[in-house]
Design goal:
Blueprint lengths: L1 H13 L6 E13 L5 E14 L2 E14 L2 E16 L4 E12 L4 E17 L3 E16 L4 E18 L2 E10 L9 E11 L4 E12 L10 E12 L1
Antiparallel strand pairs: 1-2, 1-12, 2-3, 3-4, 4-5, 5-6, 6-7, 7-8, 8-9, 9-10, 10-11, 11-12
Length: 235
């Protein structure tokens, strides 16, 4: 995976074309209750894309922290870097590296390397529908000093629709069948509604589902869900 990250960083350094296009999307959500009940939840999402010619370099990060009665109840961190090369107006090939930490899922660090292709079924200004198909190698170091190595397939589908100038919706689903241990498949999905306030700022409500059919030892639940309302800055 280190080799993939080095390749992606090198691509970014080499591609300083004046025709490059940079986009940013920053998202922050905060919830706090004080008094008889004391809870705090923080979510931060960051997404950037750097496009030039037929190439796209993408960066994503997600952070979640929650506590109740001053005791931490959730802590999750994810970051990924992706390089994609357009083969045609509809087809692209990509390489991606992902790093995750999830204390309450018994994951000290999870490193994934992906290779695959993306096909755009619909690509208009207000309606986008595409799918990824690829391969993932995953290395997982757990907090109990055990380790897991797995090979997955990866199917990802995303549909985004701008219904009116004031609001849009997005739905994505990711399914990863495990080629190494058949029962250890993964399923992730998120549905969201975004209400646009200005050219830069909007409000987003989202429901995220993450399912691990065979979680790490000591983890009670296979499925985690998260509902958030966040302020988004996009430019």
């Amino acid at each position: 995976m280190k080799a993939i990250f080095m390749m992606l960083v090198l691509m970014l350094m080499l591609c300083s074309s004046a025709f490059a296009e940079f986009t940013n999307e920053s998202e922050v959500g905060i919830a706090s209750a004080n008094g008889n009940t004391r809870t705090q939840t923080y979510t931060i999402n960051q997404s950037n894309q750097y496009k030039w010619d037929k190439d796209t370099l993408g960066f994503k990060a997600r952070y979640l922290n929650a506590s109740a009665q001053s005791e931490e109840t959730a802590r999750y961190f994810m970051t990924s870097l992706r390089y994609e090369r357009s083969v045609s107006s509809r087809l692209g090939l990509f390489a991606m590296g992902t790093f995750e930490k999830d204390r309450f899922a018994n994951i000290d660090q999870r490193r994934a390397s992906d290779l695959g292709g993306r096909y755009h079924f619909i690509e208009t200004e207000k309606n986008k529908f595409f799918s990824d198909l690829g391969y993932r190698y995953l290395h997982e170091d757990r907090l109990d000093d055990t380790h897991a190595y797995s090979q997955y397939g990866r199917l990802y589908v995303e549909w985004a629709k701008q219904w009116q100038d004031s609001y849009s919706t997005k739905l994505w689903v990711e399914y990863l069948p495990n080629f190494t241990t058949q029962k250890d498949w993964l399923l992730n999905s998120e549905a969201s509604l975004t209400v646009i306030m200005t050219e830069v700022f909007s409000l987003k409500s989202a429901f995220l589902l993450r399912n691990d059919n065979s979680p790490a030892p000591g983890v009670d639940y296979k499925t985690d869900t998260l509902f958030t309302t966040s302020l988004v800055a996009k430019f």
